[in-house]
Design the sequence.
């Protein structure tokens, strides 16, 4: 639990792979080839498993699970293949077009709609789809289900967003607890912001950005969820309305007062006590523990507050494991994936759930969460809001145009926060751009 997982660090820069693969996605719709899986009359079936898990601790953890399967299933062997995260989407589609697609694949759920639309993903058998819909947390299941109801595969890595805050900074400003309403959020952000005589920030009140192409998008969507609002509908059209405008107004007010800025990266400054509050993903827990050491005691987490007391919001995103539609051994591939995500250990938890939990991730299967979370919560109470958010978080859209729409969201929010564009102008332009697809 002491370090953020490589896959999660890279998920903050998902745009690189998605942008590179735009042309390839169109090609992959035209040609679906076979896979390099093999079999013979006197040998086992060999399945290839492509992922970006080439770094520790995920590399060894996944390899251990595969090794256990291979030992117990001599007639169906699985071979692990890895590429860098930035190359994953491109590789999935290029190999597919060339007839060299892996039998089993791991993907960021945001790409699910694109991969399904381009014929890369096999539809899971009914019993597997039902298992995923019924036995995984609401947000995890939604993250791997397309607008047409197609389930892409088993949820694996799963993250929610919460409000991180520095207890010491809040206490020095006269606050002994985190905000529970937008009015309190704005008040605390304004009063904890400090600048020197030259106007340089000594402490930023509230960070509304993070690293990567989703810089402004995920914090905004977490606040939008707290209003009950939505970003996109099932077809990828804009679902933005007055609730979205209320979030834009909040962020605009914070930018105008100087309580938030896009010029400060909270991942670099929060650990050094230069940010009072930040809306960030759950993977950040491990990073903060490593960076802050004893200073981590000053870190608190809370639900992202809504406009009024009792309202709260979060965004959930996930990765999933699925089967290639072009595999010659789809039945064997689903058999492996069912075991990979469902086989139980002596503790009663699944092997996958135990592995994810051991690295600080939210176990997406409900029974795993019930078994594993109490021990983890006892060790770190900051995980409580993170786990709880799985029950109400907005699942990140996986419509075919989801990445493009998220890029548009970031671009228009930047004009709002940096160039001080009006809320009406920002919302209207964004809706038009999203619906143009």
Sequence:
């Amino acid at each position: 639990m002491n370090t953020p997982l490589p896959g999660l660090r890279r998920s903050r820069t998902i745009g690189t792979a998605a942008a590179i693969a735009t042309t390839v996605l169109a090609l992959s719709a035209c040609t679906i080839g076979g896979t390099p899986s093999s079999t013979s009359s006197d040998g086992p079936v060999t399945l290839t498993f492509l992922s970006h898990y080439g770094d520790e601790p995920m590399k060894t953890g996944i390899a251990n699970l595969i090794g256990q399967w291979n030992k117990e299933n001599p007639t169906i062997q699985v071979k692990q293949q890895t590429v860098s995260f930035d190359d994953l989407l491109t590789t999935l589609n290029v190999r597919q077009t060339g007839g060299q697609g892996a039998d089993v694949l791991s993907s960021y759920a945001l790409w699910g709609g694109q991969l399904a639309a381009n014929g890369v993903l096999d539809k899971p058998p009914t019993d597997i789809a039902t298992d995923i819909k019924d036995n995984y947390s609401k947000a995890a299941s939604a993250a791997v289900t397309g607008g047409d109801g197609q389930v892409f595969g088993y949820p694996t890595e799963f993250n929610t967003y919460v409000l991180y805050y520095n207890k010491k900074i809040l206490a020095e400003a006269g606050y002994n607890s985190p905000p529970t309403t937008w009015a309190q959020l704005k008040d605390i952000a304004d009063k904890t912001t400090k600048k020197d005589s030259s106007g340089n920030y000594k402490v930023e009140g509230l960070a509304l950005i993070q690293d990567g192409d989703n810089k402004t998008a995920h914090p905004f969507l977490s606040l939008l969820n707290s209003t009950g609002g939505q970003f996109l509908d099932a077809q990828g059209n804009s679902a933005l309305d007055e609730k979205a405008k209320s979030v834009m107004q909040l962020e605009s007010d914070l930018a105008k007062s100087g309580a938030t800025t896009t010029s400060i990266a909270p991942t670099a400054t929060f650990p050094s006590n230069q940010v009072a509050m930040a809306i960030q993903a759950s993977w950040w827990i491990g990073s903060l523990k490593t960076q802050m050491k004893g200073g981590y005691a000053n870190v608190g987490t809370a639900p992202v507050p809504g406009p009024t007391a009792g309202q709260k919001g979060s965004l959930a995103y996930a990765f999933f494991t699925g089967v290639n539609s072009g595999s010659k051994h789809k039945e064997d591939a689903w058999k492996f994936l069912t075991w990979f995500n469902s086989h139980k250990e002596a503790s009663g938890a699944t092997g996958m759930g135990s592995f994810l939990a051991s690295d600080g991730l939210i176990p997406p299967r409900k029974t795993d969460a019930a078994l594993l979370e109490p021990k983890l919560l006892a060790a770190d109470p900051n995980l409580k809001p993170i786990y709880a958010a799985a029950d109400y978080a907005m699942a990140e859209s996986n419509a075919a145009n989801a990445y493009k729409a998220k890029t548009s969201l970031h671009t228009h929010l930047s004009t709002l926060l940096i160039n001080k564009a009006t809320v009406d102008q920002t919302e209207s332009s964004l809706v038009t751009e999203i619906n143009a697809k």
